[in-house]
Structures are given as C-alpha cells and as structure tokens.
Specification:
The structure is a homodimer of 443-residue chains.
Chain A lengths: L7 E12 L9 E2 L1 E6 L2 E7 H7 E16 L1 E6 L15 H16 L2 H17 L2 E8 L2 H11 L2 E8 L10 H14 L6 E7 L7 H14 L3 E5 L3 H11 L3 H7 L7 E5 L5 H10 L2 E4 L1 H6 L7 H6 L3 E4 L12 H16 L7 H15 L17 E5 L11 H8 L5 E6 L2 E5 L2 E2 L4 H15 L2
C-alpha cells in the first residue's frame, strides 16, 4: 500500500490546529492530520509526515479549529422537536398528561414524525452530532428523515401495551418495528434498538419476549428507567420490587441494555448495573427541567459503568445540544462532589463520543479517530474573539464554546453540515413545515 | 407635551414582535412598541397607538425579535477574562494558589486590567449585558475600558490587607478607590461599590471603616461571602463565628450589602439576610465548576431575598454569559426542589434584570421598561430555524436561545452592539492584545 517514495492516494486530508482523537484517552495533538478515504479514517499522524505519505484529492486546512469524533446523542425522541418548549414551567402531570401526551395523541402521524425528525436531524448536525439513539412511533417516517439528513442513527422501536395512532398492542408494535428493521438491514448508517417505553407501560410477558428477541437478533434494548421517584414507587406498588430489580429478574440487564435517566440508583443498583455490564444514557438537562432530580454521575463514573449523554426530546430540554449536556454533566458532577477535578473535560468528551458509541454496540465503528473507523467527525472553530484566550482546546470545548462554533460535520466521510446549514435539508421549507405544526399545536 | 392631533417627536421607536418589560411582572406584549428619546424610555404602548402618538427620527422593525431590558451581570472580575480557562479541572488550591493568583500577581497591571476589561465588555455587550458589577484592581484602567465600551458598570473598589502591585495596604486601596470615585462622580454610566475582597482577607477594623464609609457616601458594599465550606471553617477558626455573623456584628449587613455566592446558608442566616434587606449575587456556574457546592436558590427565593445573577470571572466560568446563568439557575432550582414550576422563566429573567439593578441601587434607573428609565435594552431574534417552533418567547429566552441570538444591545439609548460586534471596540486589535497576554501567561 505504501511503497517507498510513492504516495498513497486518498480522498481527504484534514489539517486542523488541534485533533482530539478520544483514543488514546486524554490526548490533544497539535499539527497532526487526519487521512480519510472511502468514508473511513486511514491514518492520524503528524502533518509533515502526512504530506510525504499521502496524496489527497482534497486538503482542508482548519487553522483555528479542533477536530474530534462526531458527537453521539444517546437518547432523544427526535420527532418531538415540534413540541419544543410547549409545556415549560408546568407541573409534571400537566406537562405530560395535559400537554405533551394529548398533543402527541392527537397529532402523532407519520407526517409529524417525518417533519419533527428532520428538524431534529438538522439541529443535531448543526451542533456536531453525527449519531443519535432515538425512540419513536412511526419509525418508517423517522427512517425517511434520517436517510435524507445523512446522519447515523439507532432507531428505538417503541413497544408498549397501550394502543396509539401507530399500533394496536405490544405485538403490533413489535412486528411493525421488526418488519422495518428487516427492510433496512443493509442500510449502512442505520441500526435498531428494542425500546420498551418504560417498565410501567410494558407487561412482564412483553419484556421477556423483548429479552429473547434482543438475544436472538443481537440488538440493544433501550428504555427509560428510574427517571422519577414516582415511577419507582408505582413499580413497587404494582410489582413488589423496584423496576431495575424487575428487569433483572426478567433477564433484560446485560451489555446490550441501555438505561435512560437512572436518576435514582441505590448503591446496590449501581453495583448491579456495573456487574451486568449495562450502559446508562444520562440526560441531565431534562432531569433538572422536569424536576425529576439530579443524576448521580459521579458514583456511576467511579463504579466504572459505561455512560453516554442524551438530550431527551426538545419538549423537555429544549435544545438537542450535546455541548450543553457535556457542560452541565461536568458542572453538576463537580458541584455535587465538591471536587473541581471530577469529570474532567476529556472525560466529558469521551462520554459524548466513544462511550455513547459503546452503549450502542458501535464502538468498533465510530466514537474515536482510530484508523479503520468511519469518518464521523466534527470541526469546531476556537478562533472567535469571544473565545479568547484559549489555554486548552479540550476544556474550551466543554466550558467555553457553543455548538454554534461547530463549522463542519462529517458522517462516514461525507460533509453533512457546513456554513451553519445541513447539506441535504432545505431549511426554509423545513421551517415552513415546522410553522404549520406550530399553528396546529398552539390551540 | 402631547396636544391633540399633534405627534411628539422622538429619537427612536422600536417595534419588535414581542416585548417583555419585566415590570409589570410575568407579562409578554405582542405588537407593542417602545418609544425612546434622549436615552430614556418615553412610552411602552400598542404599536398602532404609537404610530398615532409619536413621530420618530428612526423606526426599527424587529419582526422576529423579543425586546427586553439589558441584562445585569451582578458579579464579575472583568479583567480576568485574560485568564479564561487557564486552570480548568484542577484542584481548587492549585487553581487559585498555583495558577490564577500567581498569574495575577505576576502580570497584574493597569495594562492587563484595561485589555481584560475591554475583552469582557465586548463579550458582555455581545450577549445582551448592559450593566455589570465588577471587582478589580487598577480600577482607573477598568474605567477607561468601560468608558470606551459604552457600558454601564458598578466598579467594586477592592479592599484587602495584603499588598499587591496595585496598593500597599487597606488604607491605600481605600484612598485610591475613593479618589477615583471622586474623579468619576459625574460620569452618567458609572457607579461604585466598596468591595472588601472576602471576610478572610480583611480585618475587623477595615470592615468597620467600610461600613461607615458605605453609610456616609451611600454606596453599596460588594463582597464574596460563604462561597466554600473552607472559608466558613477558617472564619470560625479565626473569629469564633461564621463570616455572616461577623459581618452582621460589624454593621455591614443591610439594604446596601451584596453577598456574592452565598452557597452555604443556614436557615437562620437566610432569615438574617432577609430581615436586614441584603442582596445576593448567585454565580451558579462558578460554584459548580470550582466544586464549591450548589447555591440554594430556591429557599432564598421563597424567603423573599432579592438576588441577581453573576458570571464570576472567565477564570472560573468560562463565559460571561447571563443566558447560561439564567438557564442553569432555573434548571438547578427545579432539579433540587424536584419541582418543574420552581423559578420560572419569567422569574429568571427578572433576576437577570430588575433584581440585579435593585441590588446595585439602580432599580429606579434601569432593570425594566417602565417609562422614565434609561433605555438599556437588548433584542433577541427568535427566528432562527434551530429555535423553531416557539410557543412562549419568555421560556424560549431561558431554555432555548443562546446569547448569540442577541442582535442589538443598547445602553442609555445608544446602540452599543449590533451585527455581532460592539460599536466602539476594534475586535481585531483586541484579539491581538489578548493573544499577546495569552503568550505571556502560557509559560
């Protein structure tokens, strides 16, 4: 491949000021370059060496930028972007039972999901997110939107017992979801999770079926778990045990299991999640905003549980912005532990990239800049006068920059966001569609 | 002034989509206009009526914007912008004793303060901040920068016992500060606070002198208080009582007193601050980031203590961004109280405007859009596609928008920021100067 005195032809050589590869851990390279070919990372090496070794079709100099892996949003309901801020500052029972759920029930349709998901994809690409873990009804419409956007996604096939506009019962949700998975099985950017909505809305029988399917098909399980005190109390009332214990008994916990929220964990439960190899998707903004509580990121981190960061939906955040979640996770962890060294900037960056990928079973493919992985990347400009001075690009990314400073987002080597705009989405048309939904919803 | 059938000539009529006047509380006006003349607010009224009543030299239509009072940053050390992020993720004793303080001691000079303060003013104007409450050495250099920027500021005249490059002892700090105040007494945008650095660095004798001067000269006192457990323990060790009790005994607590941080307050201390009419400047990002703890905004709020929001310096934040502090205060308060209705968006907006002005004794002049007040304003565009849909502009400001969405900042009727740039600051030159300091500091 690389005989002496001959250069290897590649698609793209990116030469930013700094590169944070996530693997190896805690490193920032200066004056390195990333070589990309056919959608994959070929090499990460000093720029001077790269010039000798590679002959790129395109060379991109980013003299004030830091390049890092694309961010992973480990939990969202992309379609609910159309409900952004529709129930702020209201009591939780009003929020969900009087506003969000009725709006969902009345308006939920394939068209709602297509527009809402496209809006979410555009927003996420704008902020350097290349992969998201979704949970949605009408996943076929979500697939349309994700495919158009060019993003990578794990689509959570929602299962619950109650009927909705989308499906009649648990078996109907499952069979519709699995049929879609079958249709999409060769899609290079899509994967799927089984997504029992929450322990309280799914029976033991359905959960056992999901555990079996997950093992047979080798796909992750993605569910809301221990988000509120109320949920746990209701679980105990109905089943005699806390929800985590129930899921453990039913065989769901394991390395294919992603618990979303996990705000309330007893020490023994942290041990249980750790020993079974489960993953957590922390969504701190949503937990705070809904008054659910404050997730204990520090203990989870120290116990070695793998966790990523999620935005939840725009109905409870109201931004699909992993920069905010990195910043907030790090600040909360330091504040609660009263330790400014807790959950460092590099650790937050790893949670938002590699650890999210690992939870989805995608860490061999994405999440760091190791050669052989897909070229899912974002570049962030640290040159803006408002960000001066910069002593450390890693801490600048977490504590100082905004997602607005993201200048380029690549998925599998394709530039899917640049100059503030997604490559394959007509923003004017999308805004107009969002506005139509706004007028329908703002009754 | 306004005889029938004749229109009053004014300088400017602003007609945004929405106006949030802060007074009356909790209101958002649609299709209203704000009439401005000679730097003051003349009227706030329906747009149709305004067209009949006023003949403006300039009319400004802002069809996708919300107009609100300029934000008040109730605590910062503007000059330390030059130390932005210089000691992130380090233990607190390292942060301060090994990095920040030595850097300050070695490099602190009038030139450092001038450049750092100008950088801070530019950043604050960019994000809709029109007034800040500073604490700095070399305040004459800070006055130069503030005057150039066109901002309004309360300059905290630092007092401590220890010598620095700036002054030799407490009396020297005081006399230098008061001489500057005398020089600037007719400046329309400047006011002053007496700023004992912290109880631990100032003797009883000096604090008593400050209490007397504050009463004689009718200027506020602004000090760090109960920021960390360590500070309180040291205070007890040295003086036998907690710092708040000591300051109370020395006569400092009262309506002219602004306690910065107040992370650790016992119930009796909250009562004491409330009964004496003290104000608090909460700086939640800094408290979390330094591992100091989590301020109890909820109890303070419920006890009726007036409080505003501060950024602290860029050395511990790292953004001088009141949008972040509004969002974080509201999220933290909801999360800790487990109540999503706690500290609503309107309450956060009031803390960041009128309540900050009240703490500084400036609430008759700024902080809301009542006619007669100075036209300190900011306009925020909610039209960006990433912010769609918008159901409520007030909650959008706190939970969804970024300071980057601020399009205009006026101080006393003058447009001091527009198109992302401050009116009176050469950003290229400023960046170059900041870069010189960065190179000196990054030893």
């Amino acid at each position: 491949m690389n005989p002496e005195n001959s250069q290897v032809v590649i698609d793209l050589l990116i030469h930013p000021k700094w590169i944070i590869p996530i693997e190896p851990t805690g490193i920032t390279f200066s004056d390195y370059a990333l070589a990309i070919n056919d959608g994959y990372i070929v090499d990460l090496l000093p720029y001077e060496t790269a010039l000798k070794r590679y002959l790129p079709h395109e060379e991109l100099d980013l003299p004030g930028h830091v390049l890092l892996p694309g961010l992973v949003n480990l939990h969202t309901h992309a379609a609910l972007s159309l409900l952004r801020g529709c129930a702020d500052d209201l009591p939780l029972n009003s929020t969900l039972s009087r506003r969000t759920w009725p709006a969902e029930a009345r308006h939920l349709s394939a068209e709602f999901v297509r527009t809402g998901t496209l809006l979410a994809c555009a927003e996420m690409l704008r902020g350097g997110i290349t992969t998201f873990n979704d949970m949605c009804f009408f996943p076929t419409a979500a697939v349309d939107a994700v495919h158009q956007s060019g993003m990578r996604a794990a689509l959570g096939l929602v299962v619950l017992e109650q009927p909705t506009n989308y499906a009649a019962d648990a078996d109907d949700y499952l069979s519709k979801g699995l049929a879609l998975r079958d249709t999409c099985k060769d899609h290079p950017l899509l994967s799927f999770c089984l997504a029992p909505q929450a322990p309280g809305t799914v029976t033991d029988k359905t959960l056992e079926k999901i555990a079996t399917l997950s093992a047979q098909l080798e796909i992750p399980i993605h569910t809301h778990l221990h988000e509120t005190r109320h949920e746990i109390a209701e679980g105990i009332k109905q089943y005699g045990v806390r929800p985590i214990q129930r899921l453990h008994t039913l065989g769901l916990l394991g390395p294919q299991f992603i618990a979303v929220h996990a705000v309330y964990l007893e020490a023994a439960e942290i041990d249980q999640l750790s020993l079974t190899g489960c993953h957590i998707a922390f969504c701190p903004t949503s937990n705070l905003k809904l008054g659910s509580g404050i997730p204990n990121i520090n203990d989870t981190h120290q116990r070695g549980i793998n966790f990523g960061l999620g935005t939840e939906s725009a109905a409870s955040n109201n931004r699909l912005d992993i920069f905010q979640e990195m910043r907030l996770s790090s600040l909360l962890t330091k504040g609660i532990s009263e330790d400014p060294t807790a959950f460092t900037a590099h650790q937050a960056l790893q949670a938002a990239t590699l650890n999210g990928a690992r939870a989805l079973g995608l860490d061999q493919r994405i999440g760091s800049l190791l050669p052989g992985k897909a070229a899912d990347l974002c570049a962030v400009c640290l040159d803006d006068w408002m960000l001066q001075p910069c002593f450390d690009p890693a801490s600048h990314l977490v504590y100082t920059t905004r997602r607005d400073d993201v200048t380029h987002t690549w998925v599998a080597g394709r530039l899917q966001m640049h100059n503030g705009l997604p490559s394959n989405i007509d923003i004017h048309q999308l805004s107009a569609h969002a506005n139509i939904w706004h007028n329908r919803l703002a009754y």
